[in-house]
Specification:
single chain; 131 residues; 3 strands
Length: 131
């Protein structure tokens, strides 16, 4: 069973009035999740999809398995949905090696996606973090 199928199954259980979930990583976000939200009224019309950075260079340095373009494709799926789906995200600033130009890419990125909310955090080293 896919995650989208699980969401629909839970959303269709008797007595379930509302199902909300958080997507942990963009690689796990598939188009059928948007289709499930469109088809299942009990699934909240909200998706939290962390982007971390609008720069492909920084995403690569973070060892993210996606690019800006790949992420924007997922945003296009959400924007094409029948329902108006709210979008929130996480961003990290100050990642080692991030330049002023990388930071400036964030404003057009945020305007293009039209996030409803963004949770921004300064970089904080943790065990096994690439630097």
């Amino acid at each position: 069973m896919s995650f989208a199928e699980l969401l629909v199954a839970v959303g269709e259980l008797p007595g379930i009035r509302r199902v909300r979930f958080t997507t942990s990583h963009p690689r796990d976000f598939t188009q059928d999740i948007v289709q499930a939200i469109d088809a299942t009224p009990t699934l909240c019309d909200h998706i939290h999809l962390p982007v971390q950075s609008g720069s492909n260079v920084v995403l690569k340095a973070m060892a993210r398995e996606y690019t800006r373009e790949w992420y924007l494709e997922r945003m296009s799926w959400i924007k094409a949905a029948k329902r108006d789906i709210s979008i929130t995200s996480d961003m990290i600033v100050g990642f080692p090696g991030e330049t002023d130009a990388d930071l400036r890419r964030r404003l057009p990125w945020s305007v293009e996606v039209k996030y409803d909310a963004v949770f921004a955090f300064k970089f904080s080293p943790r065990p096994n973090t690439r630097r």
